[in-house]
Amino acid sequence: MMQTSSSFDLLSHPDRTLARHLRGCDEVSSLALQFKHITADFYAKDLLEEMRRLLVFFHDLGKGTDFFQYIILEATRREGTADFQREHQAYLDDFAASKAVAIANRLEENDRLSNHAKLGAYLVQAVFQHEDPLVSAILLRVIRRHHGYLTNFFESASKSPQIALEPVWEIPELEEQLRHFNEGPYQRILADNGLSIDLAKWPTIRDKYKGPLLVMTLRTRLHKADDLRYFFLQHFLFSLLLAADKGDMMIELTADKQEFIKPNRLLPQSLVDAYKAHWFAGKTPRPIDLLREEAYQTVAQNVATFGERSFFSLTLPTGLGKTFSAYRTAIQLQRQTHGQTGQVPRIIYCLPFTSIIDQNAQVLADMFAHHQAAGGTDLDESWLATHHYLSVPKNHYDKRELVKDEGEYLTAGWEQEVIVTTFVQLLESIFTNQNRALRKFHNLTNAVLILDEVQSIPPKYFEAVEEVFQKLALYFGTKFVFVTATQPFLFANPDNVLELTDPTLEKTKYYFDTLNRIQLNQTLLKETDYQDRKLTEWLPIIQQDIDDNADKSFLIICNTIAQSQEVFRTLRQGSRESGRVFVYLSSSILPKIRREKIAQIKRNIEADVRQVVVSTQVVEAGVDIDLDVVYRDFAPIDSLNQSAGRCNRNGVRGQGIVKLFHTGKDRFIYDATLRDLTKQVLRKYPAVIEEKDLYALNRDYAAAVRRAVVDQANTSQTLITHMKRLNLEDVSKHFKLIEEDNRSFNVFIACDAEAKSIWNTYRSCIRDLEGFARKRAIKKLTPSLLQYVTRFPKKHYEPPTDKAENFIINEPDWENYYDLETGFKIPTDDNMTVFA
Fold first, then answer.
1. Are strands 311-315 and 479-484 parallel, antiparallel or unpaired?
2. For 321-369, what is each residue's pLDDT tens digit?
3. What is the DSSP letter of 428?
4. By three-state DSSP, how is residue 149 classified?
5. Which of 62, 489, 539, 613 would bridge 119 by S-S if both were Cys, CB 3.0 to 4.6 A apart?
6. Alpha helix (H) ranges present in 383-434?
7. Which residue stretches of 645-798 are H helix?
8. Strand pairing category for 384-387 and 11-13
9. Model confidence, pTM
10. Helix (H, G, I), strand (E, B) or coil at 794
């Protein structure tokens, strides 16, 4: 082996040595694993600790080659600070004089020689051999793939071998890297950490992995095992290594890693109770408030009694205080679990839509603020983070001001005590092969997961999601709370889920039976035998109802943007009331303006201003507005429940009414099976369904859905099979919670001075910065940028020349295509363009 005789330190990045980087990775991953609860049903923690250390000190072994050192030394000359360059000037000069020319010429012939992951993936086998060869192979795979995504285990989708070494080019390349490996400096790094490596074992390793026999043996063993444990082991180790690698790079070089990677802290037991007492102080309780409090206390009692269970449901009618009960449940479970395991669970609250996350998180933020204002010192608002594509990481954690990428590391990696996020972020960190999504997977261990409106998960994934959740509970002690206004039907056996309002379900039914706030009126559907009718047939009916009820506010929920725009224009133009306020909402409205519109609607409600709100389904889940009459285009029953939740929530204005109609546009939005089942169930009920009957209706629907899931389990079974066989590319391909929409462009609307300033900053980042600096600056700017981004449908919009492939298009003449009040100007003859 060709070695340097110098004592120079190998470099890892333009600002740190390789020894420094590996120590940082070791510190981050050691702390992270230390705070994890691992059950005996997974793998022994001492085995995981051994594998963790080997991942850390072998994942960058290939950086010890002259090929990588040439690349990083050149980067150091360009990007390194003056102090760092001076510190390592002797190495820079020595390498330039003795090796640079020859190495540069060889890299020009084959730039793959600078790749560094593969060499360590195979050489780690010299120091780790598990009795189960699949465990050893997983260690290899995690190192080999740590700079990319997880491919299928044995052979990628592009037919590239992932375990076996290709003899024509892979083996010669690895052996050339070994001939240019600086063994002395790297052995010193290993020795300083109680490790070593015998490079003389390479021929044995090479011969073991160059033939088909090992792969055939491993494949047979994997298929015979038919076990998800390997999937979770690979996910866990990959996530842990990514968290370590990113943690060392994204946390300030001089920072103490223990200030960021620390045990979760307990939330105060009285947090929710004290805030509720403050909120309702001096107010005369209404009948519904008394019912909410009864449910709240009952749930708390059942958590105290049955907290050792893993799966819970919290089923209450919309508007009966599910959010307060859910947060108190999470805090109770956090404390009970701490007493049982010694570890404090992280609380992760998941919601179906980005548009309602900030509103939900604000409830908890207000609780934090009230607790601190009352003198509480055992809580900090920086423990709470929201994570979605529009979220902005906080600029401090505890009392520390965050610099560099520390905020992004904490939030995107789910390192804070409480995370409020989306189903997409949760489930696509499990059913995925993507590097960025997997980084947070290890923080699902020992967590308390609240899934609000869990029924929004597509039924075809139910069986796969249930299987994964069961394993998270079994292996890591993760607990789940399913929050819904309908009966949860995610699990095939409902006995596995304890209902917190009442394990016998009798009191659960009582909470529905007691209410008389609304009626679900399907008279219009029955008159048309649930068939499609053109929107022009419904508009006069809706208009007449508005005109006849000047004292009521209306909400009309449509299934497509084109449909909603037509309804809004027609009703506003046809209104005979000068004082009536009209408000429009859809995903076509810029996020910044959408928030302002929701705030406007709430102000109108408080001021008793009669209004007509026209929206798509973005208004449904969790948007806390309360109107008298709701018209809802046909949708599955769980969506109808959400629509009903926007009607007479507090029961103070007589009885509200939710009227259903059918234009046929539901087929562009919703699962066909759910639509058909909804029709079947609704046909069994009278034209007017009282709120007390919604419990029975929801149970009928849940039973029908569960029967259909059994009949349509192919998607889940396919996913489970791919997971057991570690075909991660296939898992990612078959799981899409939100289907990719290639029918539109992302367009930036520079509609005000703030937007123009943001765009100018974005252009400056692209023009003036390079490499990591550009990537970091754009990542930090993206949430603000996306506040002004909407979608333009491709069939109605031609981007400026040479802009069609841009991630975001800045349309200078946006006013020709876009209206700030109603969104993209869809031609009136288009009745089905874009939805949501």
1. parallel
2. 889 999 999 999 999 999 999 999 999 999 987 767 877 888 899 999 9
3. T
4. coil
5. 62
6. 406-412, 423-427
7. 672-683, 694-711, 714-724, 728-734, 753-768, 771-786
8. unpaired
9. 0.91
10. helix
